[in-house]
Fold each of these.
Amino acid sequence: MKNMMLVVLAAAVPLLSACGGGAARKSSSGGPRPAWVEAESPKWTRAQNVLGVGSGDDEESAADRARGEISRVFSSAVTVDTSVDETETNLTQGGATNSSFSQVVAQNVKTASKKMLEGVEVVERWKDGATNRYYALAVLNKGKAMAAVAERTSALDADASLWKGRLDASTDRFERAKAGAKLAALLKGRLDLENDRRVLGGGALASTVEVSAAKAAAARALEALDVVVIATGEHSEELETGIVSGLAASGLTAKRGDSGAAGDLIVESVSGAQAVEGGDARWKWSRGSATITLKDGRAGKSFARFEVSERQASADAGEARRRAAAGLAKKAAEQTAAAIAAFFENQ
């Protein structure tokens, strides 16, 4: 369920920039090099706090980096993705954009993380007179942070108990798969919060759901669905691999099928490839594209359709095609997982 439970959070530094009280506005001081620049602060110990030290050409950049150092140690904090994606990907479902249950779980984890990280304060600042470099010390009280994590974990446990009960009570494959998908998302969210609690020095919290058994039940419910992948056109093998990967990330097991094949869920891919001009004779460019349709086999209707494309270059035309196909498969995997998550949410 990796892609389904993907936790989409705000970038760490902007989230933390508004945190802290009066100590955060303290001006940088000169004087001897403080102990906290290289090691633990005598005043702010690691036994009671998570510490982050940052440096920069000015006070605020040093403070932001110190806050960022704290956020980096937590599994549910995500750094800024600076990659440039030339691929345009569109996902539609019934003419509207739908939020999946996994996104709701992600928001719950984000809420806990934000509440936890809002306790970060920049408590010390120092300027190195010899280099004109600024340094900052950020701290997060472990006790307050663990309270925020425990509160959100308790809420996730309550939801997990609800969906485990629905899974156990249902005999319909789709209803069981729906409950299994939501249960798995909740268990993944809980694991993220448990990892944060360990970072803070706390142990595992007791759950109202037996986690191992619930995880196994959710997996069985999803695996019970008959899922068929039908891929045609250029790069069909790569697209099939990508789609199967996205389905597997959602807990679903798929098999290859021919046009017209039946199944509980059907994923169809029609793809193509072409050489394109790049403006530099030394480089060979290739562009791949695919239209992927997901169908509910019970109703015989499409519930999601999206297009992906990828353009890649190499000195060798064959390598350019291979790279474009690989990128296309990756996009297909990600969007297939997102479409499946949205489908179960709207059942």
Note: The first strand starts at residue 49 and ends at 56.
Amino acid sequence: MYNRRMKRRDVFKTSVAAMLGAPAAVAASGPPKLKITELKLLRLRYPGKTERKRNSILWSGGGAPGMTQLEIHTDAGIVGRSIPAGFTNIALENLAPLIRGENPFFVEKLWDRMYRSWRKPVAKGAVIQAIGAVDIALWDIIGKALNMPVYHVLGGFSDTLRVYAAGGYYEEGKGLKELAKEMEGYVAEGFRAVKMKVGGESFATDLERVRAVRDAIGPKVDLLIDANNKWNAYEAIRFGRAMEKYDPFWFEEPVEPDDFKGCAEVRAALDVPVVAGENEFTRWGCRELLEARSADILNLDTVIAGGITEYRKIAAMASAWHVPVAPHGNPFMAAHLMAATSNALIVETYPGVESKFNLALPLYPVKDGFIKMPDKPGLGIDPDPEMVKKYRVG
């Protein structure tokens, strides 16, 4: 409460603390005094076997389902978690010594330290993916320490997010009927946008697949088309023009990822929005995409691009070009960031995989094409202890 003997700066500190629901002493003394002690991996493996499927270029699946989490432990007992995109050995062996003993609240400092330590050669690829996984786990710690969801810590923009169901892969024995049934299933689950693969079959076959899905989902559900970098520019333009009659919501990764000019040619030739960025790293890679006018929408991956700390900069840069962001990859890593981002468009989810094979981390419920942000502290991805006890393998 205010009294006449309090100084103006004391009134300010007390007011801020009250707004945060914290004692005035906490606001005056800075961030909580935490120290990072160690990095570990949590590996869970579940019974069964995932289906073999492919996009336009690669096969995946066919093994035991499971989940790996990167854990960052602190001296206060708070454990930050993220779901890495591979290369966990770099996080454990090379990045851990750079952040051990540090306060996770200095997340910008730690990101810069991890990045600058790889200046020769400049950090790209696997290194940035590892940095991204570490960074996201640091934000999980911060949210838990403040007893707030991460998107509130970041500065919330919306507590609901539009999502789409990513599927439509090629599989053995999967014809038009099975593809249509899959997409109809996503709509029945509450999705109002679905994504399918193209580029893995002939021009005529893929065009017929697009037609079959549009007929199955009807005109009111958005249809996203993903070529996974299969074509050169003239091939992508030809297919794009042929499929435009089916009213696609976007055309994703139509050309090879390093062909910025080719992607710009596709964008200029078509009315459908072109999406790119999934294979890029950091704000510097994003800058080149934007300067080349390669994309109407950016879909950099939250982990692969460098984590929440870096993606905030990417989203801000894109907003200056009036370009929305729609992140590729794991929704648990992307949702909090997007809920704090003004130019967020839509978030990718994988109901055909996650809902069936990740027993410890069920997907967010979808209603009328949207998810409601969780109110748990941090990212809200801590697995149930009983699940860990039952399925832990490392």
Note: The CA atoms of residues 100 and 333 lie 23 Å apart.
Amino acid sequence: MNKYFDSYARNEDDSSELKFQKKLLVIICSFLFICGIVWWLLGYLTMGWNYPTIAAGLFGIMVFVMIIVSHRQKNHTLLIRSTFLGVMIVPMVWQFTIGDLHNSGMVIAWSFLTPLGILIFSSLRPAIIYMMLFVAAILVTILVQPEFYGHPIVIDKPIIKLFYAMNLVTSFTVIFATCAWFVHTIKKEKRLSDELMQNILPSAIIEEMKTTGKTKAKAFTMVTVMFTDFKGFTEVSQRVSAELLVDEIHHCFSEFDRIISKYKIEKIKTIGDAYLCASGLPISNYTHAVDMINAAFEIRNFMALRKKEKEALGEIPFELRIGLHTGPVVAGIVGVRKFQYDIWGDTVNTAARMETNSKIGKINISQSTFELLKDRPDLDFKSRGKIEVKGKGLLEMFFVEKNDAIE
């Protein structure tokens, strides 16, 4: 049965949302088909052949036929229009024929499914029109008590109670199920949207945007920035297929993402085979240099193990250079389409120079980062002296290792 519901009016280019909408529609309409047949039998047994009985039977048959027709034509709007129009008309026939709300067991409650269904499966404007028609039917029933026959149909009290039970329980069950789906869908889409936003922007920036509707650029006096880059990437890219190249970059960067998340470091962006992240923003802290160097060691060790795996398979491994620098930056969001959280300042440029002047498998840090880490007993530093850097002049650099580092 579920397979049938899944295949209803399915087109190859249907979105996941449309597929689920079609499935919900055919489930509701199948239930309404059963309700139409039950009401036809109940009407015949309690009132004989009359307008309500005939209307219920015709409604059930119509829904069944339209499910088949709309499925074959792959046009679910046919089912929406026919079924929900019938749901509006048939209860009104029952209501107006029997004569009042009480004797009919408030059968008019079923008509509320029409504006609700049109709202969910179609659009707001026709739903408003049907809602106005539903309210008008209620008012006419209460104020005028119309009867097609000129006199009400006599209904026994036990049957009236049965009408109440069936009308209220079944109609409101359908309403509840539909609203539950609607709420579930909204929450699901919101969750997916939040997850997508969290992959693009820091959580603190997301909260600021939710609260104020915008975000302002912010200056940070001290953060630690890390650049990584694969040595000889261009040469490697010419010797392997594009698919394998992208798969390997994805594998490596995914592990980088996991590692920096562990230390609450903010990924800024990737630029080709370069990876840029910053510690100490968007929420300032005093451990940014320590967090970043720990992440750098884990990334370096991961790449060392990955190199062994690739070489064992006879494949070409990536080799990594890492550079760190500490200093002030300005951070914020740029653009209105495909926007991203970015950082600017000389600190970023200097971190990039630390990376380009590093060596394979080494972590090269600047003087400012060294000053924040030099008193840690678990770290060993090797001064490289002052090195000429394009556009920066002479810069003091240090290689850093852990005392128990894997060589």
Note: The chain is about 60% helix and 20% strand.
